[in-house]
Amino acid sequence: MVILDGGLATRLEALGADLSDELWSAKLLVENPSLIRRAHLDYFAAGAQVATTASYQASIPAFRRRGLSLHEAEELIRFSVRLAAEARDDHGQGAVAASVGPYGAYLTGGAEYTGDYDLDEDGLVAWHRGRWNILASAGADFLACETIPSYAEARALKRLLGETPGVRAWVSFSCRDGEHISDGTPLRRAAELFSGDPQVLAVGVNCTAPRHLPSLIGQVKEKPVIVYPNSGEDWDAANRRWTGLADPVEFGAAAAGWHAAGAAFIGGCCRTTPEHIRRIREHLCGV
Questions:
Q1: DSSP string, 68-120
Q2: How much of the chain exceeds pLDDT 90, in percent?
Q3: Which helix (H) or strand (E) holds 240?
Q4: What's the CA dihedral at 192, 193, 196, 199 to 10 degrees?
Q5: Domain count for the chain
Q6: Quick check: 199 and 165 in contact, CB under 8 A?
Q7: Digit-coded pLDDT (tens) for 77-122
Q8: Ramachandran sector of residue 142 (left: φ over 0; alpha: ψ -120 to 50; beta: rest)
Q9: Would you list which residues are annotated within the binding site?
Q10: What are the binding residues for Zn(2+)?
């Protein structure tokens, strides 16, 4: 069993960062990289065994749109891996997962939760390839293909894996209910894309409501299951506040149930904190 980290952007905001920007946490690669390193260290201290890099939204087109050169954009993506590795080394142990965010994160507007894309599979391969090759050669232990909402995007990422035979990755989908990824494809079908792929170390879900996990875990066959849901909160627009399963103690107790159901990699995504990870460790490791 492997304990993952929690919401990187959530921790950065708690440390005072303003992430109201299309680059989200990736803007701190330019403005305040030391804060990213500190957030990684905070998660390691809480019990995480993996640091997921700040490259989720760090695409070459987004950096170029910000006025950076191609070389500068590429170096910042590599820098995201170096920051996580430095935190890992300072902590003394752990692994680094280079985040490969979906095309929808670049589009903004929530497309990573719908899979409503303007590119087909070939277009998605072409869009991902530049950043993929940078992250694949940047020294991370593996790639984290995460919040994938689309079957076509999953197929595109599988093709890129085939182009980089020395790389290992996990693949996690955003899901809209207990059976389907965000574009409506059954998770079971999406997971089957990777069932015989030796480069894929785990398949599962992330940034999905915790209430769906017991059903979703059962949809993944032939691969270790990875889950790192969001906090389960919903945004109450009328009262401008989050509501739902935010309590870290409850989250940690729920994680014990996910592990019992078959999840081998467990952590948190949006709105989860180092305290959520600490509680997961307590429930799963007893310390």
A1: --HHHHHHHHHHHHHHHHHHHHHHT--EEEEEE--HHHHH-TTGGGT---S--
A2: 90
A3: none
A4: -130
A5: 1
A6: yes
A7: 999 999 999 999 999 999 999 999 999 999 978 899 999 999 999 9
A8: beta
A9: 207, 269-270
A10: 207, 269-270
Two tokens at 192? Answer: 């089957």
The secondary structure of 110-162 as a DSSP string is TGGGT---S--HHHHHHHHHHHHHHHHTTT-SEEEEEEE--HHHHHHHHHHHH
Indicate whether 245 pLDDT > 60.
Answer: no
Residue whose tokens read 């940690």: 252
Secondary structure letter of residue 232 according to DSSP? -
- Residue 266 contacts residue 258 (beta carbons within 8 Å): yes
Could you give the CA distance from residue 219 to residue 127 in angstroms, rounded to a whole number? 29
203-222: pLDDT as tens digits: 999 999 999 999 999 999 98
Radius of gyration of the chain measured on its C-alpha atoms: 17
* CA-closest candidate to residue 43, choices 1, 12, 82: 12
Q: Choose among 62, 63, 56: nearest CA to 80.
A: 56
Residue span of the structural domain in which 277 resides: 2-285
Q: Cα separation of 256 and 3, whole Å?
A: 12
User: Cα–Cα distances in Å, from 24 out to 29, 52, 56, 97, 122?
Assistant: 10, 15, 9, 18, 27
Residue 268 in contact with residue 11, Cβ under 8 Å?
no
CB 150 within 8 A of CB 117: yes
Say which CATH number the domain at 16 has.
3.20.20.330
